[in-house]
Design brief:
This protein has 574 residues and is an alpha+beta fold. The chain has 24 helices and 16 strands. Among the domains are: 177 residues, no CATH class; 186 residues, no CATH class.
Amino acid sequence: MEPSVSVRFAGDGEGDAPLVVKDGVIRQYKYMTQVMDGEFQEGQERQVCIEKISRPIGEVVLQQEVDIVDSLTKDNLLDALIALDYVHFDTDQIFTTGSNKSLLRRIHRKVVIEGWLADHQLANNLLDSFARYPFIARFVHCHPDICAAVRPFLRKKPDVIGEQWRRRERGEAENDAVKAAVSLVASLGDDISYDAFDVSRQELARLLTNATGSTTLSAACAAIFESDEFSSCSTATVRPFADERGGSVECMGFAIDAVGLPPPYAPYASDDLPDNAISDGDAKLTEVAYPHGDSDATRPAIRLHDSPTLMDDDKIRMGEEASAGASVRSFGAKLMGGWSWLCGNGRIIGADALAQQGLGDIRLKDVVLQMTVRHFPLRVLALHYVRMCVIDRDYEEISKMAKSMHRKVADYVVFNMALVKRHRLPLMLYWAAGIEGLSRHRAQDISSALESDFFDISDVPAVLPVVPLLPSAIQTAFKFFKTSSRGPWRIRMTTKRPLTTSTSNSSTERQHAKRRRPIGIVWRPTMSDSERKSPHSRARGAVARMARERRERQASKNSRTEQPLCGSNWDVTA
């Protein structure tokens, strides 16, 4: 006879018969398994009293998975989820024979299909509960549809995010509640990025300050960019040389070119691939360079040490270089349609090590690239705030944000400001003006951008007040940019739509702006006839043309990686 447990509930009367639960059901609950651990005699029953679950809810949750879902209603959903958390339902297993759907997945499907979260009170209650009940937190962060239903209420309750932010600041381990908070903020950022959620600049500022426990928006942004704890990561694997791909693959939205380098190995740091690069998947692999060898499901990992990242050389350490304090891994940011790229290699595994692993005959087509993208959703919201400052032409606020950050962090971000497609002139100059002690390297980046790139003529008046506050090298480059000796400025009309300057955030007005497609104006200096004939002018023109063509090639090469807006770290291992 199958062992069983008699369950009573707080509030049961003398006439209430106990609920008899069989062993097969009890094994679903970690809370109850200890009752079943003793020796059983045939027909024996054990009895337990559950004080924090009412009988009606107990009758719902103490069943097989399929029966639990069938018994759920909109009215008892929240109480049932809390009860499942209390009895520690084992969400890591599937107890229905022959099924591939977990209990969480089954509940999610019923909630979505029935449209229960259209009830604002229920959605609000889920938002209020995920911090206390891990089962509800997992229910939220494992299912994007649940995140989407709960997300709109974040604007009025940013403190639920702040609680999880502070837990990570205190060094507490990441748990389901933290993951739920990160997922909710990421969902909000995605919707704002794709213009599916209207939020005002003031609302966004309030959310950022409350979420980080800061007193000002500038302090909030500093905390967001100086901490790398409040994040999530996604990992994917791909074989870049399999199926005649030739090393060119797309992984999680990023275009990747992997190549083999013929021996002997030598470091290669150029932006362009070498002429003797190998893309034939049948080529024999003699050693592994950075990105390096990892594993797939069928082959043991070749891991001689920890995986490197593409940007380890630019790791940003907070405080003194020799201190063991906090550090921020370098990060990439894409602003308003800008693009960026990374490249590099370094020896990881030599030919002798491959032979020792029994992989002396491995081919390029056997290499598996593992890519991990770490996403920082609060940085996305902070960058959206920067975008809104541009729309409102409140450039002083941009300087305040840069000034509040650790210099090395702000110094890194200014490089990304110099790569955006629109309004890059005020963005990079006002950001740079807020950095005390801007590095010479970044000043050179800005100077080069001023000397070689096109800018929107309407942005020039806005930056005139801030130019005197910048390093002398940038001031000199700006004077060259503004009063070139090469002759009059030529205005070229384009159909590229600049960012709207309206302070309204309504989707209706933005749609009207898209239909109007205003004409943007970009400018560049022109040469006189005598200058065109000068050998020096022709040489300068050739250099400029080569640089421009190289940028255009790189832009075309990286066009697949464009996203509306994101803030991520990404590590690549192979």
